[in-house]
Design brief:
The complex is a heterodimer.
Chain A: H1 2-6, H2 12-23, H3 26-58, H4 64-121, H5 124-136, H6 139-166, H7 168-177, H8 180-215, H9 217-223, H10 226-278, H11 284-331, E1 357-364, E2 374-381, E3 386-390, H12 397-405, E4 412-417, E5 420-421, H13 427-430, E6 434-437, E7 446-447, H14 448-453, H15 461-470, H16 473-478, E8 487-488, H17 497-511, E9 515-519, H18 527-541, E10 545-549, H19 553-558, E11 561-566, E12 569-574, H20 576-582, H21 585-594
Parallel strand pairs in A: 3-10, 3-11, 6-9, 9-10
Antiparallel strand pairs in A: 1-2, 1-4, 4-5, 7-8, 11-12
Helix pairs in contact in A: 3-4, 3-6, 3-11, 4-5, 4-6, 4-11, 5-11, 6-7, 6-11, 7-10, 8-10, 10-11, 15-17, 17-18, 20-21
Chain B: H1 2-11, H2 15-47, H3 52-99, H4 115-127, H5 129-154, H6 158-204, H7 206-211, H8 215-267, H9 273-285, H10 287-315, E1 337-344, E2 354-361, E3 366-370, H11 377-384, E4 392-397, E5 400-401, H12 407-413, E6 414-417, H13 428-433, H14 441-450, H15 454-459, H16 468-472, H17 477-489, E7 495-499, H18 507-521, E8 525-529, E9 541-546, E10 549-554, H19 556-561, H20 565-574
Parallel strand pairs in B: 3-8, 3-9, 6-7, 7-8
Antiparallel strand pairs in B: 1-2, 1-4, 4-5, 9-10
The chains are: A alpha/beta, B alpha/beta.
Chain lengths: 596, 582
């Protein structure tokens, strides 16, 4: 019965998987179980000693002189019980902390194997929430619920085993009432589950609404809608209270049922013992002992009910985490990133720069993402050539770049680098040949030097300076007293778009790789800066083979070759001048621009 | 202490509920102690073989208390959680009202980067403040008083034991536990925040660190933090567990003491043994009240930390604007704008962002404001929105100084497209209606037509009812900008301020939409802040700002030919450096 209630229909799968994670903490769990059983034993022993002492003084008129030994023993039992409580708590916490760390690690590794393309298909916020708050909310499950489940299973059995030989009638009362508690919990829990889910949604909506309001506060002020929003906020909050109160009514009801059973049983036992004492059918020692132990019999079961709700929220978090794990596992089939080995990868082929790249009938599909589909991609980048890739958003430009970068593997056709199939070059090896300048480069929470040097950690100080100078980064440095030591990213204050761009360019200079893949920025910068950055990019491109997702006319005009991508296919390619003369798709794009 | 007092203040409006729930809490504990005490009394009494009539009251008492305990507990939960939810609502509204005057003016000074997310977490930590902290402490105090009185009434030797025992278990040890776990608890928050930052980087920066072969160093950093986190958590568990063990031990000691003190008097029959038995069991049952206090003590550091962070918002200096109540009717004024000797700096020790600006913008005039980044263009918009108040000089709208306008009237006159417009997590219709609550369905579609989003919206399965909250993340920058522009098209204001309207739009589309916007502006006043010269031909005058000063002004035609900033901007632009094709 209890077991079935544990494995509540919906949560069953997650429960099983969570227990699987717990199983690998064998020793920790064993410690939790043994201290838990120790607590149970000591509880019974303490009750027995108290009953004995009271009996001796009350019924047999014995004083300190006769009772010094049981009194000292009682003191010892109390101390031991407190110690057991302590070690049980610590052991459970240790299990929880270790499982959390392992789960988080597994999640991160799965994300890494699935690669950046997978991350693009999910909302970043969800992923971070799962790895952070999601994993954290498993703590109540492992630190509180699991040990309590152990106690709930063990202590009542122990009490029954002690009580039955002493007084079968009370034993029978216990035996009959005990299963009622989980039964009621199960019945009401089932009803409450639907409500709990609704309340969970209401809570989500409320916090989303508040967050949204706070984030949009400036817009609200700009539109003069601050007051109205406050009124509305009150209304959303009211809706939340209403659902919450309904749910609480249910959970309180289940608590009421459980408490009624346990307190009324205690009362029943007390009266029944009292009456038998009255007629001399039971002695005081046993009667009092049973009274002392009765609450301890019900307590673990009641506590389990209280912790069940905390555990449920952990289980629903587990649901999200396991879904992500499975998804990432599936997604890693498309990814070429496999980096868990510590040993350095042996170079299999020798690639002499400058590189020559060939795509032969490359195709790619990603389930559920039509915008990531590519078909019949065939083109060549000659040694040292600049190829511009253009097309509307959603045409698959990023996917194509990801294939070349090695994040994804083609589902058909092949990519050749200097006539070697890219598939035979491990990602760890291949990435040494690439410099990547994304549209929105990521700046890490560290100092500026680290942020540039990450491109080539072993680079000497001088190389860093040169790279900085070449990317016009020294202008940014001049404005900040701490120069290269300036902490950027997250809390250190972000860099502006133009500044982040220069960091990315400095990284590319420092890495000095033979293949450059770049996604041009689209944001408006002020004209002086644009002209200078353009010059920087031109020096960077010199002598390198490059693929540029181009957004600017100059870039396209200066390219040796242009690929026009539409709906996952190359609809046109050739030197820009030829394409212009052909008056096809390329011409249409430019004409749109000219029409202004 | 001050913090706790401040938090208690939030409860004031619900004091009646609070009193009732505390009384119920005390009654619940009392009946729970009473149940076991009476049961013990019953058994002890029965052991002496009195007549059944003597047991009658005790039997009734046991049954009654058994029932009462559960029912009272149920009522107590009911009332106290109601207080809880109301407190949460109160805190939410308080947060909103506190932040309204602070944003965006004080954004940089607000505690840390991701303030808003944290504010929500902090609210959640405080949500249970009443149920977890205030109520258990009062219940514990009253329980101690009651049991001490009862024990003293039976036998004078008991009460010091009971008083010291319960004060220790429910007062000293919880306080000690709070002191012991405070540091690790706060450290845990700190490490957790650090871990969050690294995880964000791990997810968002994956492209970059993967290609530079840094994934191991990323994982290593996370692992190191995880190790620290592990240590801190265990530290906290060790101390918290110690506190729990000690608190239980202390209750049991008290029981032991009552046993020991009573042994001889009971044996000698100087003390009523039946009452002694009842007291022993009653003290044992007070453990329930102690557990509740201990639970609170362990969570208190986090709650106080959250409270501190939230309440520190109150101490941040507000924008120095007296609320005004000058309501202006619709036709009382002609909203000509006069800017006179306007100067502004963000903080007293920073250089001025705007210096001695003078500008006349009569109704219907269109002016463009250009200049390099950092020239003070957006600051000017912020002053119009009254995010900040200017230091010197004056902005007059319709002859009335800007600082005298009340918000509602001002927004009837002024419509602003700010730099990073927020798309609300609402339906498409909700987002549009935000700008114009009374707009008809036709007007909404018309506005979407103007920004070329109508086809897109028609293709959506739920049309205007589509929830853009989920879509918002997937809406491209261009689509967001156009939705914000659509909101502008719905406005009825007579002064329009645009801060880089064409950002994120492709060039052809930008031109088409701006043309429509110009047609719509018609006789309205237009102030247009721009980075690129595109479209600026259509304004009457161009003002070039540099380092907070007006350095050039004139018609677009005149400035275009000149060698000033605008002339250079046009030339550079026509050299195609900034031409965005796709």
């Amino acid at each position: 019965m209890l077991r079935r209630w544990f494995y509540n229909q919906h949560a069953m799968r997650e429960f099983k998987r969570l227990f699987k994670w717990a199983r690998s903490e064998g020793w920790g769990i064993a410690l939790v179980v043994s201290t838990g059983m120790g607590i149970g034993l000591l509880t019974v022993l303490q009750a027995y000693l108290i009953a004995q002492i009271v009996n001796a003084a009350f019924m047999q008129h014995q004083g300190w002189a006769d009772l010094d030994r049981p009194m000292v023993l009682l003191l010892g039992v109390m101390g031991a019980r407190a110690g057991a409580v302590w070690s049980n708590e610590v052991a459970a916490q240790r299990v929880a902390v270790r499982i959390k760390a392992r789960l988080r690690r597994a999640l991160l590794e799965a994300m890494l194997r699935a690669g950046p393309a997978y991350l693009k298909t999910r909302r970043i916020g969800d992923l971070i929430a799962a790895a952070m708050q999601g994993v954290e909310s498993l703590e109540p499950f492992f630190a509180h619920y699991v040990p309590q489940a152990v106690l709930a299973a063990g202590v009542p059995l122990l009490v029954l085993a002690v009580v039955f030989p002493l007084d079968w009638l009370t034993g029978l009362v216990f035996l009959v009432t005990a299963p009622l508690i989980p039964l009621f919990m199960m019945l009401i829990g089932r009803m409450a589950e639907r409500l709990t889910r609704r309340q969970w949604q209401a809570l989500q909506r409320l916090s989303e609404y508040i967050l949204d309001t706070l984030q949009g506060l400036v817009s609200l002020k700009a539109m003069g809608r601050v007051r109205e929003r406050e009124t509305h906020l009150g209304r959303v909050a009211d809706a939340y209270y209403t659902t919450t109160l309904t749910v609480l009514r249910m959970t309180f009801l289940s608590a009421l049922a459980m408490e009624l059973i346990s307190t009324l049983s205690t009362a029943l036992v007390a009266v029944e013992i009292g009456l038998r004492l009255l007629y001399g059918r039971l002695d005081f020692l046993h009667g009092f002992f049973i009274l002392l132990i009765a609450p301890e019999f019900y307590l673990p079961l009641r506590m389990l009910g209280q912790r069940f709700h905390a555990a449920m929220s952990g289980v629903s978090a587990a649901q999200t985490i396991f879904t992500l794990l499975d998804e990432a596992e599936t997604a890693s089939a498309w990814s070429r990133v496999s980096l868990m080995e510590e040993k350095p990868v042996q170079s299999i082929v020798s690639l002499a720069p400058p590189l020559r790249i060939r795509f032969e009938d490359v195709a790619f599909t990603y389930p559920g993402r039509p915008d990531m589909t590519l078909q019949d991609i065939t083109f060549e980048i000659q040694r040292g050539q600049k190829v511009a890739l253009i097309g509307p958003s959603g045409a698959g430009k990023t996917t194509l770049a990801y294939l070349l970068l090695g994040f994804l593997q083609p589902s058909g056709g092949r990519i050749l680098v200097n006539d070697h199939p890219l598939a035979q070059i491990p990602f760890e090896e291949w990435r040494k040949f690439i410099a990547w300048v994304p549209q929105n480069p990521y700046v890490f929470h560290a100092n500026l030097a680290w942020n540039v040097r990450m491109a080539c950690p072993e680079a000497p100080e001088e190389a860093l300076r040169v790279a900085g100078r070449r990317a016009f980064l020294d202008e940014v440095l001049a404005h900040h007293p701490r120069a290269w030591d300036m902490v950027v990213g997250e809390q250190g204050g972000g860099l502006s778009g133009g500044e982040a761009q220069r960091v990315a360019l400095a990284r590319a200079f420092l890495k000095d790789a033979p293949l450059l893949v770049m996604d041009e920025p689209t944001a408006h910068l002020d004209p002086d800066l644009e002209v200078r950055l353009e010059r920087v990019i031109r020096t960077l491109l010199e002598g390198r083979t490059s693929l540029i997702i181009a957004h600017r006319l100059t870039t396209i005009q200066n390219a040796d070759w242009v690929l026009v991508l539409e709906d996952g296919r190359i609809v046109e390619q050739g030197p820009p001048a030829d394409l212009l003369a052909r008056k096809g798709a390329f011409y249409t794009h430019l004409a749109q621009w000219r029409a202004l | 202490m001050k913090l706790i007092w401040r938090l208690v203040q939030f409860l004031k409006p619900y004091s009646a509920h609070v009193v009732i729930s505390i009384l119920l809490g005390v009654a619940a504990i009392a009946s729970s102690i009473g149940l076991l005490g009476t049961a013990a009394y019953l058994i002890a009494r029965a052991a002496l073989h009195p007549s059944i009539a003597d047991l009658h009251i005790a039997i009734v008492g046991v049954r009654f208390l058994g029932l009462a305990r559960s029912v009272i507990r149920y009522l107590e939960r009911w009332v106290s959680h109601g207080v809880n939810l109301r407190l949460l609502g109160e805190l939410q509204r308080w947060l909103y009202r506190t932040l309204v005057p602070l944003l965006p003016a004080r954004k940089t000074e607000l505690p840390t980067g991701d303030l808003l997310n944290r504010a929500l977490v902090d609210l959640e930590n405080l949500e249970n403040f009443y149920v977890r902290f205030i109520s258990p402490i009062i219940v514990m105090a009253l329980t101690t008083l009651g049991l001490t009185w009862f024990s003293g009434a039976i036998f004078s030797g008991f009460w010091p034991w009971v008083a010291i025992g319960l004060l220790g278990a429910g007062g000293v040890i919880p306080l000690m536990t709070y002191r012991m776990t405070r540091k690790p608890a706060l450290k845990q928050v700190e490490v957790n925040a650090g871990l969050s930052i690294r995880l964000v980087e791990f997810v968002q920066g994956m492209e970059d660190y993967l290609l530079f072969g840094q994934e191991r160093s990323m994982l290593k950093q996370i692992e190191d933090l995880e190790t620290t986190y592990h240590r801190v958590q265990m530290h906290r568990a060790l101390r918290g567990g110690l506190g729990n063990g000690l608190a239980s031990l202390w209750v049991w000691f008290t029981v032991w003491g009552v046993l020991g003190v009573g042994l001889d008097p009971v044996a000698r029959e100087e003390l009523n043994g039946v009452l002694w038995v009842a007291l022993v069991v009653g003290v044992l049952a007070s453990h329930e009240a102690v557990s509740a206090v201990m639970l609170g003590a362990q969570n208190l550091p986090l709650a106080l930390h959250s409270a501190h962070r939230l309440l520190s918002l109150e101490t941040l200096k507000r924008r120095q604007i007296a609320p005004t109540h000058l309501h202006l009717g619709k036709d009382d004024y002609q909203p000509d704008i006069l800017i006179r000797n306007l100067s502004f700096r963000y903080a007293p020790d920073t250089p001025p962002v705007l210096r001695d600006i003078n500008l006349d913008i009569p109704l219907g005039r269109r002016i463009g404001i250009v200049g390099p980044s950092g020239a003070g263009k957006s600051t000017l918009v912020n002053l119009f929105l009254r995010f900040w108040d200017y230091d010197e000089g004056e902005i007059f709208i319709g002859g009335v100084p800007l600082r005298l306008w009340d918000e509602a009237s001002l927004h009837r006159v002024l419509a602003v497209l700010e730099q990073r417009p927020h798309i609300f997590s609402d339906t498409l219709r909700g987002n549009l209606r935000l700008a114009a609550p009374e707009a008809t369905e036709d007007q909404l579609w018309w506005a979407l037509e103007q920004v070329e989003l109508a086809d897109w919206a028609r293709r959506l399965p739920e049309g205007l009812n589509t929830w853009v909250g989920n879509l918002g993340a997937r809406m491209s920058g261009g689509e967001r900008q156009r939705l914000a522009l659509a909101r502008l098209f719905l406005s009825k204001a007579s002064v329009i301020i645009l801060d880089e309207p064409g950002v994120h739009l492709d060039r052809a589309q930008e031109a088409r939409i701006l043309n429509r916007l110009m047609a719509w502006v018609g006789e309205r006043t237009l102030i247009w802040i721009a980075h690129s010269p595109q479209g600026l031909d259509q304004v009457d005058e161009i003002v070039v700002l540099n380092r907070g000063e007006i350095v050039e002004r004139g018609t677009p035609h005149a400035l275009r030919e000149g060698n000033g900033f605008f002339g250079r901007m046009v030339k550079l632009s026509s050299r195609a450096a900034g031409d965005v094709v796709i």
